[in-house]
Amino acid sequence: MTWEFLPHAEQAIARFSGLINEVLFRRNEATSTGSDLGLLAARLVCLDGLRPETLPLLQEFRCTPYRCGDATALEWPEGPVKRLERRFLHPMTLALWPRLSVVVGNRTTSSSTPPSQDPQDDSKRHDVIRLLPLGDLLLALASWLSKVGLYKTSRSQSILEQLSADQIAWWSVHLPGPLFAHCTLTLSFTALERSAWGRLLAKHALVHRPEEFEAVDDGILDTTTNEPGERTFQLLEQIDATQGIGYDLAELRSMLEILKEDHPSGIDGLTKRVWIEGLQRMPLARMGVNPVTVALAGWICHMCELGTVTKANPAVSTLRQYVSAVLLALGKAMAGRDEAPEDWQADQLLEVYRCVYRETTKGRRPQALAALHSMHEYLMEAFDIEPLPGLIDSVRSDLVGGSDASLAEKPSINPVSKVDSADGRIPARVMANVIWDHEVDCCVERCKQASDPRLGRIAAVMIAIARECAVRNQDLSRLVLANVSFLADSRGAYCSIEVVRHAARGRLKTELSQRRLTVRDSRSLKTIREWVDFRRLETQNSKAYLFGESNNDKSRYRSAATQAFLNRVVKLATGYRRSRMYDLRHTVVSTQVSQALMSSAWVDANPLEIIASEAGHASPLTTIRSYSHLYEQALRMNLDIALESVVNASSQEMANALATITMQGRSLKGNSLVQAAKRRDIGLPSLWRMHMEAATHALPIETAQDPFEWAPPAALSASQRAKPQTPVHLLADALARMQRGENLEAIARVIGLPIDRMSVLTDRLHSWAYTLYCRQFPRKTAHARTPIDLLQCLESMHIKAAGASADLWSPLSRHLEGSVNRASMQAIITYWENAARGVYLALSPPANPRPLIALLVSGGLARGHLRVVAQVPKHDHSAPFPSTTSTDGSLPEGLRKDKTIGSVIDVFRQEANFNPWIETVAHRGDRPKMYLRINPHPAKDRAASSADATATLRAWLLAIKARLLLDELEDA
């Protein structure tokens, strides 16, 4: 960076240096007595790096100092997006603060004390001391400056404007470029929330209290039995079972129907609970479902649990508007993608959002814009998607640019332009959070408690990498064994990890498209090495996924469930609702930036460029603006160094100033300070500052953790809700996976059964299916020496479960989940067991098809789907066939005379309330006289044999039998 100074810059720097000495030593007789409020304001500006225009914010938000470890912090929200700003105060500022303040909080006994308006200050909180200064700081500063004599009002500039210009000139000489840019609002860091510092000091997890968040209609979502976001994570685990790429219109419409429900009480929180339970009941964990559909269901659940971009607890009417505005459009626009959600790219998502926004009617665009921003914030939290690289709409939006245009138009006493990016727009709210070391250790311990040991080991390895390297979930999930190597150098052993950002597998050809990370911590090295050795025993393929399936080199192991688990353990360790695994990336970058800003060993290469490169950022701009949250100590250190360099005072003046802090009756001797500095071999200004810091430690003010409640991190436990029964649709999906050759252990994991229970179920289902097969094909099995296995049995019985995820069967899937009891299921299976020989579903007596027909009609199959196939008598040539008719009036004469057709038609009239479609075929002696066929095209007279869906219906019947067998196992 190259600085260019104007001719009067040196004069401004000298004037501000003189002002610093005045606020420290009060040499001017006009300011030596009284005007303490103005002196406090001047010290905040000169010693602590506050801009003069910030002073009204301290009063507006009733800001008070608090202990933050060895430092004393002062924070306030700033800017249209209420970015949190913080300073560590100088001892001279802190010493003056209590003298000009009143005590607010629970220890207040004076009737003159105004009530606190801080939401953190109520009767349920800890008993703390908060010091609130009285009076107008900015007005007092202007009055105090007029007495100093260094500034005079002119026509072109006021005293405060001159002060602000001098302050910037002084900063430009004494502060590193990033800190100077931050102080002048040219480029802003974002500070951590106070609770984050409290977590560090308390070494406990934050206790979430619903009353901290805005209530809507007295309705708060009950989170007493669930960690915040847990139900969203549970829902997202279903992504691992999905493989579709289509547009799941039926499922998306079902979500909209769920959002039409209201709780009878009318309380918003209870209505949200109804929605969440409805979303969790949806049959989404199927191969044919698009992962996008599950992600959209997770978005709705996430807004119910954790809120939107702007509100922690939005009204249900707001959520309905958001979802109805964009849900179907998002599902359609994102259909056809074959990438997993964690592989989605922010630039591609931006184009999708823009397309959805443009296609939205003008009247609904505000809701659509807000919904799309909430959608992306959810994707950032759930899948570590990067922030959007641009605006969704072409104009400055409420959420990205701030809704109050006047904030950008108000004249400022700071002559530096307040923009945070090259195009002049104000950035979106940054989610500033870090995970402290003790919390990372807690996360590692929680990984050992995972119900899935393999998932727990994978999570521990990911944490071992992420605690040292600024990686995304995308970076980790794409690693293959060839990307990891163990080496050594002069600093010792290390693990080198090659991260490929946009390649699906393996290495890239050019160095520019990849980066290498290094892990050196001995504990992390041990964890990573043990996992790599374990994976190399499972597979010899160096291109197999590092976090892959044990029996499939091309498949990642439960990537969505792993990400959900990691987010969950992070929330447990911190207690903070918005914590996520991605915060470890912020932690690594923030720590590195802080170390760079506090280091005096500036090498040829810019450290921020190196940090940005290792994090995969295109430039340090993103690194500073969105990932750097630990700047306060670096700023305090650089200000202290600069202050020591400009202090121009005798030892006695320093002693007198120190006496005002210690409140000693007699003055200290300057020579005592000089001798003490010589004995300790340090400079006099440094010793003087150390004595001031020590003197202010005894001041009775609150600490960072005082306003909050704390508890040890909760143990990782299963959900306290009763685990629902495994639905029939999951068992049908399990049959489809079996027929595809998937591992039984993986199938058990998808449907949520222990592997031992799954093995027993499979054995019993095989035994029953083979018995039915022998009954259907007695000649084939009469002389069989050994039973065929389950898959061969399914193939011989013409059972094809792959089609069970088609839209045709979605209503039946939902109907089976909640409306069919065990007795009805048993009646259907009894019908199938007693049907005629062969694979056909007989309709003619002695078969009793009533339970099956009732199920299919209730399950949403239309009249055109249910075809009665009737065999024309062998010698009847009265009508050509095959043919289709909807009544018995045009049937061949031989069929009209057969009483069987009349009885079948009566069954349909009684159970389905319509006359069936009848298809006539030539007579065959190996088939029932009349049987059922499922036509997937209800409007067509006949469908090709390849389109016959009856084989899928038989798969549903087998899944029903599996559900009954599972009931027997659970009852035993």
From TrEMBL:
- From its record, what is one biological process in GO terms? DNA recombination
InterPro entries xref list: DNA_brk_join_enz, Integrase-like_cat_sf, Integrase_catalytic
Query: PROSITE patterns annotated for this entry?
Result: TYR_RECOMBINASE (PS51898)
Keywords, sorted A to Z: DNA recombination
The record's annotation in Gene3D superfamilies points to: Intergrase catalytic core (1.10.443.10)
At the top level, the lineage of the source is Bacteria
User: A Gene Ontology MF term for this entry?
Assistant: DNA binding
Q: Where is the Tyr recombinase domain?
A: 429-640
* Stretches the record annotates as Disordered: 874-895
According to UniProt, the name of this protein is: Tyr recombinase domain-containing protein
In its UniProt entry, the species of origin is given as Hydrogenophaga crocea
